[in-house]
Amino acid sequence: MTTAASPRAVLWDVGNVIVRWDPRALYAKIFKEPADIDRFLSHVCTLDWHVEHDKGVDFVRNAAPLIARFPEHEAEIRAWDERFDEMLSGPIPETAAVIEALAARDVPQFALTNMPQSKWPGVQAISPAHFGLFRDAIVSGDEKVIKPDRRIYEIVLERTGLSAGDLLFIDDSAANIAAADAIGFHTHHFTDPAQLRGAVAAHGLI
């Protein structure tokens, strides 16, 4: 789809774009051997299982069948919820600097994140000064729909009052970027923090 000549606002993904998120950061504290971490994250608490939390499914409800299937890992399964903050390892400095530069130029900024609603306040607390610069945040756990579903991008447009061509969307997922491209967003696939400033500057935003 053809987009407008240049965007006038930025839509940010959060996990691994603004703040680092990695379940291994938690489970490296729980399991002694890397192979045990790999086995647990690929066969027990998988990302396919976690995505239900992003869709708004309550942790207790989602964990129950998993605990029934892997009772020997009950404590480790519950740790996903109870120690979620230990999966987070701080803000990404290059992104923080670009957020500040955009704010200095009064560029509107918004967030679009696949995230359980209950975890969003804790994520914001990692970098309150930067999240405080956003005009709105669309959280999948609230909306009960996740990227790359077209509906969540439509919700962004409804909430912001902007057109797709007005927004530069920054995300680390190729699937999420492809879905936004199809609707007409300007996009940047975030793979290297060092490339972020140049990508945003290329759109004339900073």
Written overview of the protein:
The protein has 12 helices and 7 strands. The protein is of the alpha/beta class. The protein has a 5-stranded parallel β-sheet, with helices on both faces. The chain has a two-stranded antiparallel ribbon with strand order 2-3. Strand 6 (167-171), helix 11 and strand 7 (186-189) form a beta-alpha-beta unit.
Main features:
alpha/beta; Rossmann fold; two-stranded antiparallel ribbon; 48% helix; globular
Write the topology of this structure.
Layout: E1 9-12, E2 19-21, H1 23-30, H2 34-43, H3 47-54, H4 59-69, H5 74-82, E3 88-91, H6 93-104, E4 109-113, H7 120-124, H8 128-131, E5 136-139, H9 140-143, H10 150-160, E6 167-171, H11 174-183, E7 186-189, H12 196-201
Parallel strand pairs: 1-4, 1-6, 4-5, 6-7
Antiparallel strand pairs: 2-3
Helix pairs in contact: 4-5
What's the quick description here?
By secondary structure, the chain is of the alpha/beta class. The chain is 48% helix and 14% strand.
State the CATH class of the largest domain: Alpha Beta
Structural class determined from secondary elements? alpha/beta
**Major β-sheet, in short?**
5 strands, parallel
Gross CATH architecture of the largest domain: 3-Layer(aba) Sandwich
Would you count the extended β strands for me?
7
Shape: globular
Helix content: 40-55%
> How far apart are the first and last residues' alpha carbons, in Å?
25 Å
Mean pLDDT: 96
Instruction: Assign the CATH topology of the largest domain.
Output: Rossmann fold
How many discrete structural domains? Answer: 2
Number of helices: 12
Classified in CATH, the superfamily of the largest domain is: HAD superfamily/HAD-like
